[in-house]
Amino acid sequence: MAPGKPLACAQQQLEQDGYLLAEGLCDSKFVAHLLEVSLRHSDQVMSALGTQTIGIGSAAGFDEVVQRSPGRWDIPISPDEFGVDDRDLPWWPLISAVLGNDAEHSFSGVVYSDPGSPAQCWHIDSPHVSADHLPPHALNVMVALHDTPLAMGPTELARGSHRLTNHLQNPALVSDELVYQHEATVPEYLVANANGAVPEGVSSALATGSCLIFDDRILHRGLNNASTSRRSMTYFSYRQAGYRENTHFEAQRSVYDAGP
């Protein structure tokens, strides 16, 4: 599925570490298209938002935009708006191998952080569904739209933590504290009542067109953007057929319906 990384190896790494960095997976023409659509769409949405009040988190946002943390904006864009078919995308072989050929598109869009935005709190994107460790019920693909050095604050992941965030297996964990960016949720929290090692935090500079693919249950966070430029990534998220829990977009309002 990726240059120099056979599908079986990619699956194994995803199972073991909870994430996979696929360097050079997307060609420059495709990335330029994603960037153009992302900028155009986000400019439209943020213009419509204007000075309307928006809080932090999906329930405090709008259908068209969520502020995930201060200065970190998530703007959904459908595959149709991107002009793509999920099954034609270069990561689809891995998605279908892990989630099944009937895997469903959950969300897609662009997430960007303003210069000077702080690091997020550690969090997962959705909780485990069984006390037993099961294969992923959801996967995320993040595409670097430009070269992203560490100073721009790429995503940091706690390696292997997708096996440790199971609140149904570990009663010391609280599901909402894992999902909704609670300050006390740090890698050490996952092993506070166990003898296991604290999962290692890892982050990498990303070249244009590289893709970070990760299990929805892994502990992760966007780092602070210490640069003078906006950091932008598109994302495509997938779920097993029939999985419906939504902790990503919970708003009940539109920027186009709200008053001035």
Task: List the keywords.
260 residues, globular, 7-stranded antiparallel sheet, 3-stranded antiparallel sheet, Jelly Rolls, 5 helices, alpha+beta
Description of the molecule:
This protein has helices at residues 7-17, 28-49, 79-82, 92-99, 175-179; strands at 19-22, 66-69, 72-76, 104-113, 138-144, 155-158, 201-202, 211-215, 220-222, 231-239. The protein contains 5 helices and 10 strands; from the N terminus they run αβαββααβββαββββ. The model has no long low-confidence stretch (mean pLDDT 93). A 7-stranded antiparallel β-sheet has the order 1-8-5-10-4-3-2. A 3-stranded antiparallel β-sheet has the order 7-6-9, with no helix packed on it. With 260 residues, the protein is α+β, with helices and mostly antiparallel strands. Helix content is 19%, strand content 20%. A hairpin with a 2-residue loop joins strand 2 and strand 3 (72-76).
Rg, rounded, reads 18 Å
The description of the largest β-sheet is: 7 strands, antiparallel
Strand order of the largest sheet: 1-8-5-10-4-3-2
> Mean of residue pLDDT?
93
CATH superfamily: q2cbj1_9rhob like domain
Range of strand content: 15-25%
Q: What series of H and E elements makes up the topology? A: HEHEEHHEEEHEEEE
Low-confidence stretches: none
- The total of beta strands comes to 10
C-alpha termini separation: 47 Å
Number of domains: 1
Query: How many distinct helices?
Result: 5
Give the fraction of residues assigned to helices: 10-25%
CATH class: Mainly Beta
The CATH topology assignment is: Jelly Rolls
Spatial shape: globular
CATH architecture annotation = Sandwich
Structural class: alpha+beta
